[in-house]
Amino acid sequence: MGFRFRSYWTEFWTACLWFLGHIPSHSFRKTLLRIAGVKIGRKSFIHLGCRVYEPTNIAIGEGTIIGDHATLDGRDRLTIGDHVDIASEVMIFNASRDIHTEDFKLKLAPVAIGNHVFIGPRAIILPGVTVGDGAIIAAGAVVTKDVPSKTLVGGVPARKIKDRGVEKLNYRLGRARLFQ
C-alpha cells in the first residue's frame, strides 16, 4: 500500500510541477519551484513550460537562464553552475534503463554543468555527464560523455569540434522578458 500511495503522490506532484511551468511570471514560477525544493540562485530565470522531475535534487546557480520547454531530471543530483544559458527544449537526464540486465533496471547517475556553459536548442545530456566551465554544446547534440572546459561539442553522439579559444570568461547573462 505504501508504494502505491508514494506512486500516486509522485504523479500528483509531477502534474503540479507541470502546471507551475506554465505560469506566465518568472518570479512567481521561481518562488513556487523553490517551495517545491529546487535550489535557485539569484537572478536566474526559468522560462515557460520547463519540466522539473524530483525537484529536491536540483540546484541552479546564479544568473542562469533555463529556456522554454526544457526538461530537468532530478531523480539523481543535477547541478547547474552560474551564468549558464540552457536554450529551448534542452533535455537533461540523470536516469536511464540498463539494457544489459534481465529486469531492465533503472540506473541513476548525477549530472554536473559548470559555469558559463551554453547548451544549444534541443540538445540532450545523458546520465553521468559532467560539462566543464565555458563549454558549448551545439544544437541537437546528444552528450554521452564528459565535456572538457572551454570545448565546443556537437553531433550524435557529441564529439569535440574545437576549443573555445577564450582564456577568461566573466560575462553575465541578460534579463529575460517578463512573460516568457
TrEMBL record:
InterPro entries on file: Hexapep, Hexapep_transf_CS, Trans_hexapeptide_repeat, Trimer_LpxA-like_sf
- SUPFAM superfamilies, per database record: Trimeric LpxA-like enzymes
Q: Which Gene3D superfamilies match?
A: Hexapeptide repeat proteins
**Does the keyword Repeat belong to this entry?**
yes
Q: Which CDD domains match?
A: LbH_MAT_like (cd04647)
Q: Which chain positions lie within coiled-coil regions?
A: none
Alphabetically sorted, this entry's keywords are: Repeat, Transferase
Highest rank taxon of the organism? Bacteria
Any GO MF annotation of the entry: transferase activity
Q: What is this protein identified as?
A: Acetyltransferase
